[in-house]
């Protein structure tokens, strides 16, 4: 495994980071607790020291399982990244910004973006309890909240750093102007944003800004939620309540299938999986600090960790870039 410094912080994170969205179950067609915890243990056993989760993932379930999985681990050797600002329990009292309606066991659950100072303090205490820890290594706002001034949110994060409840503060899904606004109040450690072979929009303005400001980029959805594995073009039927049934519709699936087929030839020649090839390519892109990779069982977790066991040559990177260029 390779470890990289996050922005201007002292945090050294594993380049492949365990992404805990899917093990929350909701929006992913459910989960298996034993497999989920085994995937965390397998990741750590193979050098992954960093885990990214959020209260919203499974409405607290993801954090609970991470906390349970880490009871047998050395906390000081694991970096916990979590978030705040997506509220589902009706506690906003009419405040915040409506985001979307999620589903929980067949029930519609309204989700609000809410990043007020009081809500942040409340959520952090809840996360600490679920994670069974007394500090969070990196706390991130999950999505921008247009109803709360950015400076109020950042002042709350600065206060939490001073209290020792968090080691560093980051944002997620912030555009360049929002990052610049936040920087007026606090030195951000990172911005967690979507980035993949199919979505490289951050390269235009966000990457240059974060490099200039010494802000790390945490790339999420590098596999486009499993689409780039190729298995959904063969036998990967999704459950009816899996959000990817709609998510995959944004892409030209025939072009994606062609891309996967081309990349598979290189993956086979290197005796690696297509998933490992895609993840490794992502880790090598300009401005990317760490890459989130989800795993729902130990086998997937080990495969993700082994991504860093090989490299890609200049000619191989050129081959990949040429294949990606055909998507346009």
Automatic annotation (TrEMBL):
Q: Where is the NADP-dependent oxidoreductase domain?
A: 16-323
As recorded in UniProt, its EC number(s) are 1.1.1.-
What keywords sit in the KW lines?
Coiled coil, Oxidoreductase
One GO term in the molecular function aspect is:
oxidoreductase activity
Q: Name residues in a coiled coil.
A: 114-141
GO cellular component, alphabetical, reads: cytosol
What name does the UniProt record give this protein?
Answer: Aldo-keto reductase YhdN
Record the organism: Flavobacterium collinsii
Record lineage: Bacteria, Pseudomonadati, Bacteroidota, Flavobacteriia, Flavobacteriales
Gene that specifies this protein: yhdN
């Amino acid at each position: 495994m390779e470890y990289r410094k996050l922005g201007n912080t002292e945090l050294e994170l594993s380049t492949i980071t365990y992404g805990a969205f899917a093990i929350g179950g909701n929006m992913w067609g459910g989960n298996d607790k034993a497999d989920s915890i085994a995937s965390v243990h397998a990741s750590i056993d193979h050098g992954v020291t960093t885990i990214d989760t959020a209260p919203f993932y499974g409405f607290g379930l993801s954090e609970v399982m991470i906390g349970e999985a880490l009871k047998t681990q050395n906390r000081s050797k694991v970096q916990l990244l979590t978030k705040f600002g997506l509220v589902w329990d009706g506690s906003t009292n009419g405040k915040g910004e409506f985001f979307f309606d999620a589903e929980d066991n067949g029930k519609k659950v309204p989700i609000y973006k809410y990043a007020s100072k009081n809500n942040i303090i409340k959520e952090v205490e809840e996360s600490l309890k679920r994670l069974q820890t007394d500090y969070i290594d990196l706390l991130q706002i999950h999505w921008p909240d247009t109803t709360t001034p950015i400076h109020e949110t950042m002042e709350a994060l600065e206060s939490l750093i001073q209290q020792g409840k968090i080691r560093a503060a980051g944002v997620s899904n912030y555009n360049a102007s929002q990052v610049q606004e936040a920087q007026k109040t606090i030195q951000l450690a990172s911005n967690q944003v979507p980035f993949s072979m199919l979505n490289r929009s951050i390269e235009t303005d966000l990457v240059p800004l974060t490099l200039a400001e010494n802000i790390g980029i945490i790339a999420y959805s590098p596999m486009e939620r499993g689409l780039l594995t190729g298995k959904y073009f063969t036998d990967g039927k999704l459950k009816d309540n899996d959000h990817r049934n709609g998510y995959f519709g944004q892409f030209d699936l025939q072009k994606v299938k062609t891309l996967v087929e081309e990349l598979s030839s290189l993956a086979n020649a290197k005796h690696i999986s297509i998933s490992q090839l895609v993840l490794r390519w992502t880790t090598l892109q300009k401005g990317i600090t760490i890459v989130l990779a989800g795993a729902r069982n130990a086998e997937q977790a080990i495969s993700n960790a082994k991504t860093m066991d090989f490299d890609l040559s200049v000619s191989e990177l050129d081959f990949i870039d040429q294949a990606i260029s055909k998507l346009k």
